[in-house]
Amino acid sequence: MFQVSAFANSQNGYVENLNVTSSKLGENFTHVKLSGTWSGNPCEGTWWTLDSDTEEGKSFLSVILAAQMAAKEITIWGGSLECHGSMTRVLQVGITQ
User: Fold this and answer.
1) Predicted confidence (pLDDT) at residue 1 exceeds the cutoff of 50
2) CATH number of 82's domain
3) How far is residue 93 from each of residues 24, 26, 43, measured CA to CA in Å?
4) Number of domains making up the chain
């Protein structure tokens, strides 16, 4: 028996860019870019995306903003089939100690 991870890719680094938008504007979701190297990147882009109009997205955004304000590294994880254009959908966020 083997284990399968739900996270096909990840990236850790500092927040370089953050654009907060509403999904009510159509396909333009909030997106964030980190400074670090990707581990796997099925969407072949350089940005992560989240829907900041949902409770889940608001939680992710609050962790990202807290890390940015404290100048802390974060790790973002995503899935292999979680592409929004060339951006990867955020599935989990963690602050590096």
Assistant:
1) no
2) 2.40.50
3) 23, 24, 18
4) 1
